[in-house]
Every structure is written in structure tokens, then in C-alpha cells.
Design a protein that fits this description.
about 65% helix, Serine Threonine Protein Phosphatase 5, Tetratricopeptide repeat, three-stranded antiparallel beta sheet, mainly alpha, about 5% strand
Length: about 325
């Protein structure tokens, strides 16, 4: 009996070791398993970028430990999210929601991270809940976690709730409910960056829902005089839809920063693949979607959308 017990303990220990190994790769923690079954681990970053992200997380955690306020829960969760520690971010935000159950902002950020984790149903639940808790007006500016080039936040809580809710429905292939969410999102677009982001996803949603006339009408609001600070990739996609940019030029990323180049490929690539798809060239679309999901930015919305499309094709 003693020998048998020892064998069981040894087996249990081996299982734990194998499990731990399965959750790590080169010392990096497993983040998620994709809709296609691919395992993604916390990204390898430059020493400078890693140090900045770690420092920001340490500050947010220290602030939260000192004062577990609604705002400090949000920032602690956000900083974990920027490190691709999505489940940890969800855990922190869940604890925050237990303490602040009427916080639209906590639900908004947890909904975002459920999208990152490919759990679209829970994202829809959270973002729908957020929409019932937030006031329609006044718009509340949302602070940026990663400052833009003009160091001025451009979006609001209201915009982000409706935008992410539309996205979650879109990723599920529920284009009817996505349209309703994007219609609400449009009401919160107060600058060109928000307008182009909303137009871009609305256009793709209309095309997927076979509403070509509505999609084409949207493009009237896309001009070459728009002042875009953050959403250049969305702008390029819209110019492509309008026939002002060739698809090859949108697929070609020009930035010298490898990190930004990979992110731009995920965003611009999905738009180009989608454009080929609903214009009848599904084989070319698949090649581009495969190229997108071969990249590193598995948290990018274009990456997740390409992944969701490929997963649906596998099920057909």
C-alpha cells in the first residue's frame, strides 16, 4: 500500500510538471488557445518595451494595493492586458465588478478582454451590461493607456462600449445585432479617428450582411482631407473600399518599426482579405487570412477576425 501511494504521488507530480511545461514556452506563459487550436504565449519583446510595460504594471498594482478603487481596478486590469495577460486582467476586473457592480467602465474593459480571449458570448454580456449602466451623455473621455502622437485621448467610454459590442457580434457572425450596436456607436463619433474606425467596421458588417448599397453610402463620409491621428490602418482600408488605394498597397506595410509593422499587417491584412472575399475571390482571401494569423499580434482585432473566419471555414 505504501509503495502504491508513493507511485500515485509520483504520478501526480509528473502530471503537474507536464501541465506546467504545457503552459510555458521558453519561460513564457500560455495566454490562450485560438479558435484554430493554436497556442499563443506571452510575446517576446525588446528589453526596452518589456521594461516599460513591467514598470507601468508595477505602478498600477501598487496604486491598487494602496487604494482598491474603481479606477485603480481598471488600470491594474488594463496594464495586465497590455502585457497580453488577458485572463489575469479578467480576474482583476471581475473582482472589481464584485465591489463596484454598477461600473460601466469595469464591464467595458472586461468585455474587451473577453474578446481577446475569443469568448464572444461573455463579451456581449459584459458590453450589453455596460451599455445599460452608462449615461448616453455627456460623453466621458477615456484615458489612453498608450498615448498617441498628440498625447490627447480621442475616444469615450460610450464609444468604446458600443464599438466593442458591435465587434463582438461581428466576430460571431451576428451582423444584425452588430449593425444595431454600430448605429449607436456612430452617435458617439466626434472626431475623424472615431468616424473612420466606425465606418470601417460598419462597412464590413454591411458587406457581410449583403447590404451593398448601405455600405457604399457610408463611403461618402470618407475623404482625403480627414485628420487621422491613430487609425491610419482603418483609413487605408476605407480608401481601398472607395477605390482610392490599390489592395496591394494596403497589404504592403511601410513602417520601419517591426512591432508596428506586424500590427498594421494584422489590421490592414484582414481588411484586404475581406475585400477579396466579398468580391468573389475567396481563395485569395484565405491566403491573406492565413498570412494574418501567421503574425504575432494575436490580440489585434484584425487578427481575431481573420482567425474567426478561418475557423468558420473549417466547420463548413
Amino acid at each position: 500500500m505504501i509503495m502504491k501511494a508513493k507511485s500515485l504521488y509520483a504520478l501526480a507530480g509528473l502530471v503537474l510538471i507536464l501541465s506546467a511545461c504545457g503552459n510555458e514556452k521558453d519561460g513564457r506563459q500560455l495566454v490562450l488557445t485560438s479558435l484554430l487550436g493554436t497556442k499563443y504565449y506571452e510575446p517576446v519583446r525588446s528589453e526596452k518595451v518589456q521594461a516599460r510595460l513591467d514598470s507601468n504594471l508595477n505602478v498600477a498594482k501598487a496604486n491598487w494595493e494602496k487604494d482598491p478603487s474603481e479606477e485603480n481596478y481598471i488600470w491594474y486590469g488594463r496594464r495586465l492586458g497590455y502585457l497580453s495577460r488577458f485572463q489575469q486582467a479578467i480576474d482583476v476586473l471581475t473582482e472589481g465588478i464584485a465591489k463596484f457592480p454598477n461600473s460601466a467602465k469595469l464591464y467595458r474593459h472586461r468585455g474587451h478582454r473577453y474578446i481577446s480571449m475569443r469568448n464572444f458570448d461573455l463579451a456581449i454580456e459584459d458590453l450589453t451590461k455596460a451599455s445599460t449602466l452608462m449615461p448616453a451623455e455627456p460623453l466621458e473621455i477615456e484615458p489612453d493607456g498608450i498615448p498617441n502622437s498628440i498625447n490627447t485621448p480621442l475616444s469615450s467610454t460610450q464609444f468604446n462600449v458600443w464599438y466593442h459590442l458591435g465587434l463582438a457580434y461581428y466576430l460571431k457572425g451576428d451582423y444584425v445585432n452588430a449593425e444595431k450596436a454600430y448605429d449607436e456607436c456612430w452617435k458617439t463619433c466626434v472626431n475623424d479617428d472615431l468616424r473612420i474606425a466606425c465606418i470601417d467596421w460598419m462597412y464590413m458588417n454591411y458587406r457581410r450582411g449583403r447590404k451593398e448599397i448601405k455600405a457604399d453610402n457610408l463611403l461618402r463620409d470618407v475623404t482625403d482631407t480627414m485628420k487621422i491621428v491613430e487609425n491610419d490602418s482603418y483609413y487605408k482600408r476605407c480608401l481601398m473600399y472607395k477605390g482610392l488605394l490599390a489592395s496591394d498597397s494596403v497589404l504592403k506595410v511601410t513602417t520601419k518599426d517591426p512591432e508596428q509593422a506586424d500590427l498594421a499587417l494584422a489590421t490592414q491584412g484582414y481588411g484586404v482579405g475581406n475585400f477579396f472575399y466579398y468580391n468573389g475571390n475567396s481563395s485569395r482571401a484565405k491566403v491573406i487570412f492565413d498570412q494574418v494569423v501567421a503574425g504575432r499580434h494575436f490580440g489585434a482585432f484584425g487578427f481575431i477576425a481573420a482567425e474567426a473566419e478561418l475557423a468558420r471555414w473549417q466547420d463548413r
